[in-house]
Amino acid sequence: MATPKFIQDIRAKAGDTLLLMPGVVMVVFDDRGRVLLNRRTDTGRWALISGIPDPGEQPAEAAVREIHEETGVSAVVQRVLSVFTNEPVTYDNGDHAQYIDIVLRCRALGGEARVNDDESLDVRWFALDELPPLGPIARGRIESALRDDPTWFAPATPPGLGDEGYQAP
């Protein structure tokens, strides 16, 4: 993932300290029910399309922009699947980050899936029964996009109630 200029500016002042970062992750389906994936240049692995919102940019706007920038596909956001805090990561240069991902189900409207920037080695549509190797989190996000479940988030126990006897809604 190319580092946005505003993050480079923060890094110039904050060094490699842990930054809490927003992220958007998109599960994009076409009219044939296939899912859009890219093979990332930074890891060489297949992944869901993802990115970082720019300052002032709404998550859905960031999702639509990132999908088009990375794949050449035009899409619309249909709904929020989950809000998820990932484990912290350390990059090769020593920078530390932790992403809070807003995972969105999207529908492709047009465009041809292709490598459209320097963040992808390959971009393709995959039938659900022909997915390349993906980690359990990505597979879970695809499975969630196929259901009509409410938005998922990790529940929190209200202060002072303790874990005993409290049932999250």
TrEMBL record:
Keyword Transcription: no
CDD domains associated with the record: NUDIX_Hydrolase (cd18879)
Cofactor names: Mg(2+)
Gene3D superfamilies per UniProt: Nucleoside Triphosphate Pyrophosphohydrolase
An MF annotation (GO) of this entry: hydrolase activity
Pfam family for this entry, one: NUDIX
SUPFAM superfamilies from the UniProt entry: Nudix
Positions of the UniProt region annotated as Disordered: 149-169
Keywords of this entry: Hydrolase
Nudix hydrolase domain ranges (all copies): 19-150
Name of protein: ADP-ribose pyrophosphatase YjhB, NUDIX family
Annotated source species: Actinacidiphila yanglinensis
